Amino acid sequence: MSTLLLFLPPRTRLRALGKAASEPARAGTPHEYDWALTTDDQHVHREGRSAAGALPSADTVIAIPAESDVSWRRVELPRTGRQMRAALAGKLEEALLDDPDTLHFAVEPDAVGGDTAWVAITSKPWLAEHLAQLDAAHVFIDRVAPLSWPDELPRGHFFESNGADASGISLRWSHADGVATLPLQGGLTRQFFGPGLVHAAQWTATPGIATSAERWLGTTVTVQTPAQRALGVIGSPWNLRQFDLAPRARGARALRLLSRNLMRKPWQPVRWGLGALIVVQLLGLNLWAWHQKRELAARRDAVSATLTAAFPQVRAILDAPVQMQKQLDLLRAGAGSVGDQDLEALLGAAATAWPADRPPAEALAFEPGRLTVSAQGWSQAQVDNFRSQLQSEGWLLDASEGKLTLSRASAQGRR
């Protein structure tokens, strides 16, 4: 399963003197994105820089904002349910430098109203513009995850700060009490890190400044490129796509998103369970069909055995019930007995139920098992009475087109 790590370009900011550091990109101007592709979530297999429409395809796409574009506040979450975003804006308004309507909030995973939790804050128009541009290029962002976040395990990452201070190196420090970027100029920052904290934290540095970072820190650090460090967001619980920037999947996209989620590692036991359930169901259906087939064959063999035992002269068995009925009819005819399909039986049944106020039938027609008489002049009451009396004796009556057709119920059912 492949994962594309997409680095969002940092927001354009103004210098302290009021001059633009660079010309701000117009809304809708195509951006180029640095990216890293992994197929095992452990190693970077490819990396590069491409426009939105030329990005490589992957099963999962995670957008990563620059660390300078995400700030953190710890607040007690209001108990407002669906109005959480508006309530957060009102609660954080005095602590924010920008208009709350221009900011996007994301709440700590699994936090609910009443909990004291961390809230990530970033520019809403900036993030929405990138999401819209990527979506238009058919690059669906599954998550927006920060590179660092408040955590019980303290972490420090040294990176080049482009001359922001004398040393040219800054430290991104994240721990249980927040996230901050600290300059290494002077000795104030070094005083914050005693020997105990230095050995308890995880330290990384970008290539080229690892030696300087180790000299400043007094211990070894792990060298990580930006792409290698970004692998850490794959297992991160954070997702900044919340509230009005939450993904809205419909139709084919919803199915694609569902399939992606099911193919992720946490769902592996569910996939194995579903696969095993399908196999068991198919096996059970085949066993049941085999059992039913054997039962049907056994019953067919039993009927055939009864036929050959009762009528040894029958050698070729094609349809045992039909052949048995035919042999019984031959025996009855040979013995001079009257059967339900004979004219005598049909006439006797009709005579028994014939209405007293009706004259004898003017015409009749016979075929084996069916007797048809004329119904000219019969009222509906007479027909209904005739039918009810015949039904009580196990006969059927069909009245249509001025004719009454009499047949044995069992014979009608066989036909």
From TrEMBL:
Organism: Pelomonas lactea
Entry's localization field: Cell inner membrane
Gene name of the encoded protein: gspL
Residues annotated as domain GspL cytoplasmic actin-ATPase-like: 58-146
Membrane spanning residue stretches: 270-290
Topology in membrane: Single-pass membrane protein
Gene3D superfamilies from the UniProt entry: 3.30.420.380
Keywords: Cell inner membrane, Cell membrane, Membrane, Protein transport, Transmembrane, Transmembrane helix, Transport
Family statement drawn from the similarity comment of this UniProt entry: Belongs to the GSP L family.
Main localisation: membrane
GspL periplasmic domain: residues covered: 266-398
Protein name (record): Type II secretion system protein GspL
